[in-house]
Write a structure and sequence with these properties.
Oligomer: single chain
Number of helices: 10
CATH class of the largest domain: Alpha Beta
Bound molecules: magnesium ion
Number of strands: 5
CATH superfamily of the largest domain: HAD superfamily/HAD-like
Largest sheet: 5 strands, parallel
CATH architecture of the largest domain: 3-Layer(aba) Sandwich
Shape: globular
Distance between the termini: 17 Å
Structural class: alpha/beta
Order of helices and strands: EHHHHHHEHEHEHEH
Radius of gyration: 17 Å
Length: 208
């Protein structure tokens, strides 16, 4: 087996434990539209899914049901709320910076997310992590989102990577990586580093 030449990280739930905060911010800005968003539903149905698809689901479950575009109109408010809360307290494991520095010495690294670059890049900067990544693919970077292969194919193209490893926490994200024809590793934010170390050790010439 040949070694990996790049590692493509999902953001939410992999590099940062942000999904509970995304859920809380959406719940807050949608509450007066009759949308009740609970963590169990969000975790099961919304993680890794494009925001517009997620809002279509929520609009049909609202009481009374809503036009999804009424919900979409709250996106700027949700984005602003999320940004203020995360910039106040960047949601990264303190050990992540040093780990990514070690990885970046051996592999090209990218972030591949359904969230927008406008949400992700300031957080990476605030956490001191942006310098480790050669590129960031966000939701606005592609026409077709996860589980389509497009986001991971675009990242690999930007890095000129031929054998990347995709690191993901959601079914939609894992399906996207597989559809792109790449090896995938399913992780949680809390267990990401240990799982990645084990996976890289299993490949010859990878000692991290
Ligand atoms: Mg994720």
């Amino acid at each position: 087996m040949s070694g990996f030449d790049a590692i493509l990280f999902d953001f939410d739930g992999v590099l940062a434990d942000t999904e509970p905060l995304h859920c809380a911010c959406w719940a807050e800005v949608l509450a007066d539209l009759g949308v009740t968003l609970e963590w169990d539903f969000y975790r099961a149905r919304c993680i890794g899914v494009d925001d517009r698809l997620m809002l279509r689901m929520m609009a049909s479950r609202a009481s009374p049901p809503r036009d999804w575009q009424e919900l979409w109109a709250r996106y700027p408010a949700k984005k602003d709320l999320f940004r203020r809360r995360t910039l106040a307290a960047p949601p990264f494991d303190p050990a992540l910076d040093a780990y990514l520095e070690t990885l970046a010495a051996c592999y090209k690294l990218a972030v591949v997310s359904s969230s927008s670059c406008a949400e992700i890049e300031p957080l990476l900067e605030a956490g001191g992590l942006r310098r480790h990544f050669a590129t960031v693919v966000g939701g606005e970077s592609v026409l077709h989102h996860k589980p389509a292969p497009d986001p991971y194919l675009l990242a690999a193209e930007r890095l000129s990577a031929r054998h990347p490893l995709v690191v993901e926490d959601s079914e939609a994200g894992l399906a996207s990586g597989r559809a792109a024809g790449f090896d995938v590793l399913g992780v949680t934010a809390a267990g990401m580093r240990d799982a990645l170390r084990r996976r890289l050790r299993a490949a010859p010439q990878h000692l991290l």
